[in-house]
Design brief:
- The chain is of the alpha+beta class.
- A five-stranded antiparallel β-sheet has the order 1-2-3-4-5.
- Strand 2 and strand 3 form a beta hairpin.
- The longest helix has 13 residues.
- The protein is globular and about 40 Å long.
- 23% of the residues are buried.
Length: 132
């Protein structure tokens, strides 16, 4: 699997990816496994929806999955650092968790990220394929 990190994306790629994900509706969040995992991790359905609408893209991979993170706290009961992994082609939530807000990823190994594609174009093509 190839991956591209936000640090490797152009401003245009970031803007297009975030805009694309933020505009998508009809996410499937209701699978039993996902609901179980969310409950264990203290992630609410509203946390996920907020992250889908306002989160920053962190990574895109060659399987068409996108990692988004919402750093801000929108509600008193919300934890900072909600992270979601989604498959936008199928509008499916893969997983979600709360990342420690003090985690600045000092151990992030950028050698694991070497995918040389325009991630925005790749993602848009994936979504188009899913729509047909």
């Amino acid at each position: 699997m190839e991956r591209k990190h936000r640090k490797q994306m152009s401003h245009t790629e970031i803007r297009v990816i975030e805009s694309t994900i933020h505009k998508l509706d009809g996410w499937d969040l209701a699978t039993h496994h996902i609901l179980e995992q969310m409950e264990k991790r203290g992630v609410t359905k509203q946390d996920i929806l907020d992250t889908l609408k306002l989160g920053e893209v962190i990574e895109v991979n060659s399987r068409g999955r996108v990692v988004l993170r919402l750093r801000i706290k929108l509600r008193p009961d919300m934890k900072r650092g909600t992270v979601v992994v989604v498959n936008p082609r199928e509008k499916v939530l893969v997983t979600a968790w709360h990342n420690d807000e003090r985690d600045h990823h000092a151990t992030l190994d950028m050698n694991e990220y070497h995918w040389q594609v325009n991630a925005a174009e790749f993602l848009q093509a994936q979504i188009q394929t899913g729509a047909n």
